[in-house]
Amino acid sequence: MRTLKFIVERHSDGFLAYPLGLRGVVMGQGDSYEAALADAKSAAQFHIETFGTDAFDEDSDVEAAYVAEGNIAVV
Fold first, then answer.
1. In angstroms, rounded to a whole number, what is the distance separating the alpha carbons of residues 75 and 4?
2. What is the pTM of this model?
3. What is residue 36's three-state secondary structure?
C-alpha cells in the first residue's frame, strides 16, 4: 500500500482534486471538498489498477505539499 498526497482546489463551480506522484493526468471533481477527494481517490485507484507500478512517478519524492500566496508585478 502507498500513501498519495492530493491537492484539492475550490473553484466558483465546484472542487477539483488530483494526486501528486502519479504519471499521467488523474483528476476528480465534485460539489464539495469530500466529493472531489473521493472522486480523485477512485480515479487514482483505477489508474494504478490499469497501469500497475508504471503509474507511479518514481522520480517524485514529494514529502509535503503547501499552498502559498505571493504578489507579483504585472506589467
1. 38
2. 0.84
3. helix
Which has the closest alpha carbon to 41: 9, 16, 6? 6
Question: pLDDT (tens digit, 9 = 90+) per residue, 33-62?
Answer: 999 999 999 999 999 999 998 999 888 888
Residue pLDDT, tens place only, 11-38? 999 999 999 999 999 999 999 999 999 9
Query: What is the C-alpha to C-alpha distance for residues 66 and 12, in angstroms, rounded to an integer?
Result: 21
Q: Which residue has the cell 506589467?
A: 75
Q: Are 44 and 22 in contact (CB under 8 A)?
A: yes
C-alpha cell at 12: 466558483
- Which three cell numbers mark 10? 475550490
| DSSP string for residues in 6-62 | EEEEEETTEEEEEEESBSS---EEESSHHHHHHHHHHHHHHHHHHHGGGGB-TT---
